[in-house]
Design goal:
Shape: elongated
CATH topology of the largest domain: Alpha-Beta Plaits
CATH superfamily of the largest domain: RRM (RNA recognition motif) domain
Structural class: alpha+beta
Order of helices and strands: EEEEEHEHEEHEEE
CATH class of the largest domain: Alpha Beta
Oligomer: single chain
Number of helices: 3
Strand content: 35-45%
Bound molecules: zinc ion
Number of domains: 2
């Protein structure tokens, strides 16, 4: 998303953009200038967020340690934006985690930041495999409709 950089005196595509709430309660987007690193603000919701049913981003997380909980996974992703859901897949019969799961982020830009920041990161002695989930959802089980 673009914002005006006070230092460069020009519009830049914000880096690390994230949705924030201003003191007056208004939604805004905060990020940094990719050129000079100055903090940038843009008041108002980004176009992604205006559309409520809009592009949430679904992210596949693989190579998960069995010890990682959904709450811990949520915290990892929350550093990059708004997490709307976290699901760790467990075996239907044994109830044991299968070592992978899905995280949904409120916007594609946050999701992409999370993928870039977390793919390969070590969590409980395992390097996470983080990637965009395939858009076509598998209807088997129907847990993710
Ligand atoms: Zn700048």
């Amino acid at each position: 998303m673009e914002a005006y950089c006070m230092k460069c005196r020009t519009k830049r595509e914000m880096k690390d953009a994230e949705a924030v709430t201003m003191k007056n309660g208004k939604p805004a987007t905060q990020g940094v200038c990719p050129v000079c690193g100055t903090k940038m603000f843009r008041i108002g919701r980004s176009t992604e967020q205006v559309n409520k049913s809009g592009p949430n981003m679904r992210i596949y997380v693989g190579n998960l340690s069995y010890e990682v909980t959904e709450e811990e996974l949520r915290q990892e992703f929350a550093a990059f934006g708004e997490v709307t859901s976290v699901t760790i897949i467990t075996d239907k019969y044994s109830g044991r985690p299968k070592g992978f799961g899905f995280v949904e982020m409120a916007s594609v830009s946050e999701g992409q930041a999370a993928i870039a920041g977390l793919n390969g990161k070590t969590l409980k002695d395992r390097a996470l495999n983080v990637d965009a989930a395939r858009p076509r959802s598998d209807s088997r089980g129907g847990r993710f409709g």
